[in-house]
Each structure stands twice: as C-alpha cells, then as structure tokens.
Design goal:
With 482 residues, this protein is mainly α. It contains 17 helices and no strands. It is found in: Membrane. InterPro entries: AA-permease/SLC12A_dom, Amino_acid_permease_CS, APC_YAT. Keywords: Amino-acid transport, Membrane, Transmembrane, Transmembrane helix, Transport.
Length: 482
C-alpha cells in the first residue's frame, strides 16, 4: 500500500521519493559535522577547558537527541518536505506554522550566502590573487546545479561531501589516540594536559553555559533529515534508522574529538583556538596538514551550502503548497524539483552575499545573527509540535502502538529540549551585558531574529484571526487516509 501511495504521489506531480537510506544517513551526519567541529570546537576548549567542553557538548547532545526523536515520530507518521511549517500549522496554530516556515527558509537562504563567503576566504589559501567574488559565484553555481538536477543529485552530492568529513574525523581520532599513547610520535603524551592550569574546567559554570551556544550552533543541521523525509523512498523505515544510528555517531565524533584535542593540546596553547585538527596532524608528522585541512573545511562549506539550498527551496515549496507562500513557488519541473523556489532562494542568497561583500558590515552581521537564532527557533518549534502532536494523538483515541516510530521519554523529552532551547536563545547576548555597561549593538545583533519571528507570527495571526487548535480538532490525517 505504501509503495502504491508513493507511485500515486509521483504521478500526481508531487515531490518524488528518490532519497535512499544512505542519503538520509549522510544528510543527518553532514548537517552536524562542519566548521563547528573543525574550527569552533577548539575555541570551546580554550574557553571552558576540555572538561567544560565535554559537559557542554554532552548536554546539548542530549537536547538534540530528544529533538531528533521528536522529529522522527512526526516525520515517519507524516513525511513532508515542508515539515516544520506543516507540523506547526496542523498541530499548533496556522500563524505559528507561517512564522516557522518563513523563519526556516530565511535561516538557510542566509546560510547559503555565508557559506559562499567562507568558501571564497578559504580559496585565498591557494589563490591569494583571485578576487573572492569569482570563487563565490563558482561555488553558488555548483550548488544551484546540483539542486536543479534532482533530489537524488543533491543526496548523492551530500553523501560524498559528508563522507569526506566523516572519514576525516575517523582518521583524526585514530591518529590522535595513537599519538596520545606514543604509537605515533615516539613518546607517550598521556592525559597530563587535562590538568594544565585550571583544566579540566576553566572559568566555571559561566564558561560552560557560553559553550552551550557554540555547541548548539555546531549541531544545527541535524533536523535536515525531517525536510528530506518528504523525498525519502521509505520514510517509515529509513527515518528511524537514520535518527537512531546517526545521532550517536555524531555525539561520539564530537566527544571523541574534544577528548583527543584536550589530551594533545593544552587549552593554554594559542593554536587550539584556531586550528586544532591541523596541529594534531602536524604533530603526527602528516605532510601538508594545513593544506589538507583547508581542503576538507572547503568540502564542509560546500556541503552546508548544498544542504542550505535544498532545505530552503523545499521549505518554500511546502509553504506554497500549504497556501502560506505564493502558489508560484509550488511549481515543479519535469525532474520533480521546485525550480521557482530554488531560483527565489538563489536570488535572496546572492543579495545577502553582496551585502556581506560590498555593503556595511553591520547589516551582514545582523543577517548572520538572525540566521543563527532562526535555527534555535526551529528547534523550539519541533519540540512544541511534537508535544502537541502526541497529546492530540492520544486525545483522539488513536493507538500509539500503530506509530512506526515512538519518541522516548515523552513528555519529558520534548519538555527538556524546549526548555534548553529557550535557555540557549535567551543566553545569546549574555556576554554583552556587563556590570557597568551594555553593548547595545551586540545585544541587537544577538536577538534580532526574535522580533522578526514575532512579527511573522503575530502579523499573520492578526490578519487571519487564527487560534491555537484544540487537541480534538488537530488534523492527523495523512495522504492515505480519507
């Protein structure tokens, strides 16, 4: 019956279910393993010490686990490429769905622009005389072409992009552990660096809290598996598999990397803040380590841009199909790609990129800050949607045993995730509040995403006079139900 429904959906002109299980696995992995692990992770050790970084990433990892299981329960029951907007519309309030959709769209559209800027900066390492804009245009063209071909092309590209990153982390962990025990390098390093200075915990609880913010940014992108569910060959089987296995691998990679870096490089070393991977590879005697890591980080940037283009175009398409964006964006080409939504996202990403390249720096900083906060807002939405979904499911007398995937520890799981997300959002500008002064410019850039979301939410609510949907009235019908 499920295969019949998929065939009908494809014949009716909807998104084609072409993403395989291996694509979903790497989409989830690639979404979370990026510059957060290759660059920002060293800064966390510098700020809070190896012990503080482990605690912070562990706590955020638990939060992300609950978010992923919440998303998994909804995505297997109702797979949809406009997932966050659709779930918020059906399970909470149409106005909330409208704001969630546009929030997630501009989050990834801006991310595409920032990754293109980052890619151009990385290319200066090899080609310092080439204008950065040329590389940005080349990379943006590559990302657009991959997304224009088909969902399968995006998934295949992400499979290889993410595969390179995963292989790098695995090699790093093997080399790092071998170096710790003297198998590489010729002498036993051990774990003395865990007690250098104030280590393992530097700066106390405040430092750990500040690392929460960085850790949260590092894990953003894991929710892409929910967007990809709408084009998965068998979401009921593949989504739970991706969520159950990939999360633990990601957490292991982050915790393992922090452990290795903390053991090999004291937090007092200035190099840990800028290039921990390069330093470890260099100490292991790997030639051209800096050039190698620059290439891998470039791969990570292209992966993020590729995923951002996919997520934003599918979100815009989903909103158009749901009546929350112009119907023009709901058109598909012969390969099942929402080409108009893709073009619109490309234009917006290009404008944001030009703002960063030629306009006032403050505007670009605000755009990037709004995008970062939008990711946490999306996580709040996932937790809230799942809480409402499960309560509505039970209130309508449905059998929980018929769910293809059930999130663990309900309602505690989504409540913990919701509370931690809110804490992280409110803590964005904490460093700008000092005892004797307030950096209002910094505060504004940290929280600018919140008023944008509230304007979308309350503006739609006032215009259409929407209300929070009663549990008994929540629409739990899926495509194959009458």
């Amino acid at each position: 019956m499920e295969q019949v429904n998929q065939i009908k959906e494809q014949e009716s002109g909807g998104l084609k279910r072409t993403l395989k299980a291996r694509h979903l696995n790497m989409i989830a992995m690639g979404g979370a393993i990026g510059t957060g692990i290759f660059l920002a992770l060293g800064d966390t050790i510098k700020q809070a010490g190896p012990g503080g970084a482990l605690v912070a990433y562990g706590c955020i990892g638990i939060m992300v686990y609950f978010l992923m299981t919440s998303l998994g329960e909804m995505a297997t029951f109702m797979p949809d490429s406009g997932s966050f907007s659709v779930y918020a519309t059906k399970f909470v309030d149409p106005a909330f769905g409208f704001a969630m959709g546009w929030n997630y769209w501009y989050n990834w559209a801006i991310t595409v622009a920032t990754e293109m800027v980052a890619g151009a900066v990385l290319m200066k390492f090899w080609f310092p005389g080439v204008p950065p804009v040329i590389w940005s245009v080349i990379f943006l063209t590559l990302v657009v072409v991959l997304n224009l071909l088909s969902a399968r092309a995006y998934g295949e590209a992400e499979f290889w992009f993410a595969g390179i990153k995963v292989a790098t982390v695995i090699v790093f962990l093997i080399v790092g552990i071998a170096t710790i025990y003297g198998i590489i390098g010729g002498h036993y390093v051990g774990f003395k660096n865990f007690t250098v200075g104030e280590a393992p915990f530097v700066g106390g609880p405040k430092s750990i809290f500040l690392i929460f913010l960085i850790a949260g940014f590092s894990f953003q992108g894991t929710e892409l598996v929910g967007v990809a569910a709408g084009e998965s060959e068998d979401p009921g089987k593949n989504i739970p598999k991706a969520i159950n296995t990939i999360f633990w691998r990601i957490l292991l990679f982050y915790m393992g990397t922090i452990f290795v870096v903390g053991a090999l490089i004291p937090y007092t070393d200035a190099g840990v803040q800028t290039s921990p991977f390069t330093m470890v590879f260099q100490r292991a005697g790997i030639a051209a380590a800096a050039s190698l890591m620059n290439a891998i980080i470039l791969t990570s940037v292209l992966s993020a841009g590729n995923s951002g283009m996919y997520a934003s175009s599918r979100t815009l398409y989903g909103m158009a199909k749901d009546g929350k964006a112009p119907a023009f964006f709901g058109k598909l080409n012969s390969r099942g790609v929402p080409v108009n939504a893709l073009i619109a996202t490309t234009i917006v990403a290009s404008l944001c990129f030009l703002t960063g390249l030629y306009a006032e720096t403050t505007v670009y900083v605000w755009l990037v800050a709004a995008s970062g906060l939008a990711g946490f807002v999306a996580w709040v939405g996932i937790a809230l949607c799942h809480y409402r979904f499960r309560r509505a499911y039970v209130a309508q007398g449905r059998d929980l045993g018929k769910l293809k995937y059930t999130a663990k520890l309900f309602p505690l799981g989504p409540i913990i995730a919701l509370v931690l997300c809110i804490v992280v959002i409110l803590g964005q500008g904490l460093t700008y509040f000092q005892a004797d002064t307030i950096d209002w410019k910094g505060v504004t850039s940290s929280y600018i995403g919140l008023p944008l979301f509230l304007v979308l939410w309350l503006g739609y609510k006032k215009k259409h006079n929407t209300k929070v949907i009663k549990l008994e009235d929540v629409d739990l019908k899926v495509n194959n139900e009458k």
